Every structure is written in structure tokens, then in C-alpha cells.
Amino acid sequence: MKVKRLERCITDVSAWCASKRLQLNGDNTELLWFGSTTHLRQVSPTRSTTVNNNVIQPETVVRDLEVWIDSELSMHDHVSRVAQTCFFHLRRLRSVRRQLSHDVSVKLVFALVLSRLDYCNAVRAGLPASTLAPLQRVLHAAARLVLDLKPRDHVTPALRELHWLPVAQRIEYKLCLLVHKALFIHTPDYITGLLARVASIRTRSSLRASSNGDLYLT
Q: How does pLDDT run along the chain (218 residues), one tens digit per residue?
């Protein structure tokens, strides 16, 4: 039933594109089934679909805006790929670290490593610490590189000296910043419309959360 519904949606989208003199490119279309392991068993993982006479086979991982999404939304592949790329750049920087000043090292680490740690990091919200561990190791390695620490030196004081938040707190900070902008700074309507104060909802105005200034995701 779910497969048939998806195929009808694809047919409708293709018809709409044709009415606007557009073409749905089947060669650039990817198919990914989302769900838990149990739910994915109910939908055959090999079940393909058709887009403009192109047979699309399901993928286990797809990329969207440099974010790798897997069928169970575990984000293991995404974290692994980001960590691998960051360590690659750290190895390159380490080979020339002695020729760089402290300020230049910080700027290069921000540009090549931390920017990748922070890019779309809101999609990692709620992930367990074990999943985020590779990214935390990247942050530690970057701090050791910038401050030229020895292998046995503690990295926590280094993070404090650099004013670098741990990975989990960087994600939380990004979310808090987005919420602040949505509430107090002009943002697009599709972002502002996602948030509502609990006190403004009639059916929830009597709840304790309404007096705490809590927000409701619409």
C-alpha cells in the first residue's frame, strides 16, 4: 500500500512538471525507504519504482546538501564521512604546522575543520554520545594541532583556552541560536511558523509549560 501511494505521488509530480514544461529527471532521482528495521522489513528493500520509464532502485544512503542520510536515520554514515574528511585536512595541516603561526593555524582549522563540524549540525540533535564520538575526537585533534600539544597532554583545558564548545554543546548552541532568531529577529515565514508559544495555544494555556515560556513545534 505504501509503495503504491508513493508511485501515485511520483506520477502526480511528473504530471505537474509536464504541465509546466518541466521534466522530472529520472537519472538524477534516488529512492530511499525510511523506517525502523522492523518497518523496513515490511517494505521489500529491493522494491523499486519508476520515474519517466527509468527504474529507480532503492539506496541505503543518499546525500542531500552534503548531509548523508541513511534509511534508519542513525546518521552513522554522515558522522563517519564528516570525521574522515576532517581528519584528512588535519593530517595535511599537521605537516606544515611548524611553519604556521598560532593565528594562522586557528583560521585554517576553522576554515577546513570546524566549519565542517558545524555545517548542518542541527540534523545530529538527539544522537547518542557514542555516535557523536568520532566528531568529538576530531575536535580534540584540532585543539592539539592548534596548541601544539603533546600526546599525553590533557585536551579539556585546551578546549577551554580556545573557547571551543564540545560537539554536543555546539549542536545545542546552533539550535538555540536558530530559535532566538526565529523569535526575535526577522526570519523567513517557513521558519517562524514552526514555533509557537505554549501560552498562545488555547488548549494548552493552563499547562505549567505555558508559564515557563516553553515553545511548541507546530
A: 566 777 788 888 888 888 888 877 777 778 787 877 777 776 665 577 777 677 777 778 888 888 898 888 888 999 999 999 999 999 999 999 888 888 999 999 999 999 999 998 888 988 999 999 999 999 999 999 999 888 888 899 999 999 999 999 999 999 888 888 887 877 787 777 777 776 665 555 555 555 566 676 76
Contacts of 122 (CB under 8 A, 6+ apart): 171, 174, 175, 178
| Residues in contact with 148: Cβ distance below 8 Å, sequence separation at least 6, in sequence order | 97
Q: Which backbone phi and psi does 204 adopt, to 5 degrees? A: -120, 5
161 CB burial (10 A radius; 0-12, 13-18, 19+) = exposed
Candidates 63, 56, 73; CA nearest to 3 is 56
Rounded to an integer, what is the distance from CA 193 to the centroid of its chain?
A: 21
Find the angle CA(169)-CA(159)-CA(130) to the nearest 5 degrees. Answer: 50
Bridge partners, residue 17, by sequence: none
CA-nearest of 161, 184, 181, 185 to 173 is 181
Contact in structure between 193 and 218 (CB atoms under 8 Å): yes
Q: What global pTM score does this model have? A: 0.77
By C-alpha distance, which of 98, 135, 95 is closest to 113? 135
Q: Which residues pair with 68 in a beta bridge?
A: 63
Q: Give the pairing of strands 195-197 and 67-70.
A: unpaired
Q: Is 165 exposed, middle or buried (0-12, 13-18, 19+ CB in 10 A)?
A: middle
